[in-house]
Write a structure and sequence with these properties.
Elements lengths: L14 E5 L2 E9 L3 E9 L9 E4 L1 E5 L3 E9 L5 E9 L4 E5 L2 E4 L2 H4 L6 E3 L12 H4 L3 E4 L1 H4 L30 H6 L1 H7 L3 E4 L3 E3 L7 E7 L6 H13 L3 E6 L9 H9 L48 H18 L3 E4 L7 H14 L4 E4 L16 E2 L2 H11 L6 H12 L4 H5 L2 E2 L9 H4 L4 H11 L5 E5 L26 H15 L1 H4 L4 E6 L2 E6 L2 E6 L5 E2 L6 E6 L2 E10 L1
Parallel strand pairs: 11-12, 11-20, 12-15, 15-16, 16-17, 17-18, 19-20
Antiparallel strand pairs: 1-2, 2-6, 3-4, 3-7, 5-6, 7-8, 7-10, 8-9, 13-14, 21-22, 22-23, 23-26, 24-26, 25-26
Length: 568
């Protein structure tokens, strides 16, 4: 047995409370190396010789690991446990809190070998609101979705043309009235979550360089209009998520301009990370310049980084975060560049929002493994790029095989608690990436196959505006073209609509982590509760006879390349 591959971490994604009396455990082994894993468990104050035993279920495999899981019932809300591991080679071990020992009574009944969960504290549990699991989000880049009020168009606004390739400084006049006018359309599509890119006063068309977080950008409308939009969305059963940029301010903000003018005498001097004076604009340090005079987002001179360890900055940002919840009843924050803000601040942020609404949804923009933010005291979930980009690597770009895909996806799921997986925001494209259909080389079936696969994954799925209209676009800013409103109801639109409808109908099951992956007859097979889905990513037809609810490329018992079948 490969002892070095045995792994379990207490009070983590390997050991978490799921309710007042139930504890879920996971155990990691080398692939195909272990015959069985048995957990010995009991109340923290019982005699060890009264321990109960339960064989763990092998729930899946990753690239190099097998994963075992079980759920224990402890009526007194506390637990101690240790693992008995039997290898395929006949070896027999105890894996406990103080290491690995040979299996015998002396080692089994060693108090020090038992992991401890002293008490099942509900307040410490990571939680995902039930409504999040039922939501299909629609990401709106407000400046490009719909122009509902031409009176607030910026000077130089271009004609609305979905075929344009926007420049970074272009304006097309999209606004909040335009979104309000299209709520019935979004409801018809099946959307029940609106995810807005920033809407606060800023200098740019994208609004990630905030000037004033407490004002709606006049290009988009005002607070009265925004309140009406939120209220009308709520009437339709839609939740609203706003985008907050708390890592940095725009350089036209009054705080930064005060530093520019007054230097060290500015009352805002310690609001930022300033390396030297004067704080003059700079060129990209990667091109030879010395350390920039102030820290920024990336090397963007127009976005000076906030010092979120500063108490005045904390008060300022927490006031903003709670204001939009109290006054406008938004349901969620998406947090830009969340990984570059300190954990200390996010813990405060979490407490403030949960005090207002315990069902609030907090999503961080983190593009890498995110366990430090997902322990129940910071974010509900993150933008699940490490998960969904693996889907793209197989379905859209053929970088990895089907077998590797299902392995790496399961490895990703095992990084987090089950409830955290239910709260991850899944997307195949966004304002920061090339569009789905462009990644699929404009192959409609390939794009739909990937989208169908995304919509049966654990988590909360998000669709970028215009995906249903088969919009194309390369990387930013080309992915931010004006919305194409000419294709509503066509065949592609209808297939996207049907996928959203299927997802929402089965959201209770599909949002959960208990998913099974397999390869059968060259098809990727997913079993998720009562749902079974089949995906053909080969380059030829595959015979299969199934009764399906939603499909594409399936006819007379044959599934075409890039075809899928969703069965309930």
């Amino acid at each position: 047995m490969q002892e070095a591959s045995l792994r379990h971490r207490p009070e983590s994604e390997d050991c978490f409370v799921i309710d007042k009396t139930h504890l879920r455990l996971r155990f990691h082994t080398a692939k195909d190396d272990v015959k069985k894993v048995i957990v010995h468990y009991l109340d923290s104050y019982y005699d060890l010789k009264t321990a109960q035993t339960k064989e763990m279920e092998k729930i899946g495999s990753g690239q190099v690991a097998d994963y075992y899981m079980t759920t224990l019932e402890l009526p007194l809300h506390r637990c101690q446990y240790t693992f008995e591991v039997v290898g395929q080679d006949g070896s027999h071990l105890i894996y406990g809190d103080r290491g690995i020992r040979k299996y015998n009574d002396s080692n089994l009944y060693d108090y020090g070998q038992f992991f401890k969960v002293p008490y099942f504290h509900e307040i410490d549990m990571a939680k995902t609101p039930a409504w999040v699991k039922e939501t299909v989000w629609y990401q709106i880049f407000p400046e490009r979705f719909n122009n509902g009020d031409k009176s607030n168009d910026p000077v130089g606004t271009k004609p609305w043309n979905p075929s344009d390739h926007p420049g970074r400084e272009d304006y097309y006049g999209g606004d909040l009235q335009g979104v309000l006018d299209k709520l019935d359309y979004l409801q018809k599509l099946g959307i029940n979550g609106l995810y807005f890119c920033p809407i606060f006063k800023a200098s740019s068309n994208h609004k990630y360089d905030t000037i004033d977080y407490l004002e709606i950008d006049p290009d988009f409308g005002d607070k009265t209009l925004f309140k009406k939009l939120v209220d009308e969305a709520h009437k339709r059963g839609m939740h609203v998520m706003l985008d907050a940029v708390f890592n940095h301010l725009g350089d036209q903000s009054r705080q930064w301009q005060d530093v520019v003018q007054n230097g060290r005498n500015s009352k805002y001097f310690n609001w930022f990370h300033i390396n030297r004076l004067p704080v003059m604009p700079f060129t990209d340090p990667t091109k030879g310049e010395q350390l920039p005079p102030y820290d920024t987002f990336a090397f963007e001179k127009h976005m000076p980084k906030l010092n979120t360890a500063n108490e005045d900055v904390q008060k300022y940002l927490l006031n903003i975060a709670t204001y939009w919840v109290k006054e406008f009843h938004i349901d969620a924050w998406r947090l830009d560049v969340a990984n570059e803000v300190d954990h200390h601040f996010w813990k405060k942020f979490h407490v403030e929002l949960m005090n207002i609404n315990p069902e609030f949804y907090i999503v961080g923009e983190v593009w890498h493994s995110s366990q430090p933010w997902l322990n129940g005291d910071e974010f509900t979930g993150v933008m699940n790029y490490p998960y969904t980009q693996q889907i793209e690597d197989h379905f859209l770009t053929d970088k990895i095989s089907a077998q590797m895909l299902i392995q790496v996806l399961f490895d990703q799921l095992m990084l987090y608690r089950d409830c955290v997986n239910s709260g991850m925001l899944n997307m195949l494209d966004s304002h920061d990436t090339a569009r789905l259909l462009t990644l699929a080389d404009k192959n409609y079936d390939k794009a739909l196959n990937a989208l169908a696969f995304e919509l049966v994954q654990p988590g909360s799925p998000s669709i970028y505006y215009g995906t249903e209209m088969a919009m194309t676009g390369g990387n930013d800013p080309d992915c931010r073209k004006p919305m194409d409103w000419t294709k509503e109801g066509d065949s592609y639109w209808q297939k996207v609509h049907d996928l959203i409808k299927f997802r929402r109908k089965h959201s209770t099951v599909l949002s959960q982590s208990d998913i099974k992956f397999a390869i059968k007859d060259e098809l990727i097979v997913i079993k998720h509760g009562e749902i079974t889905a089949y995906f053909n990513t080969s380059n030829h037809e595959v015979e299969i006879t199934k009764k399906c609810s939603v499909s594409n490329g399936y006819r007379n018992g044959v599934l075409s390349p890039n075809g899928y079948i969703l069965c309930e």
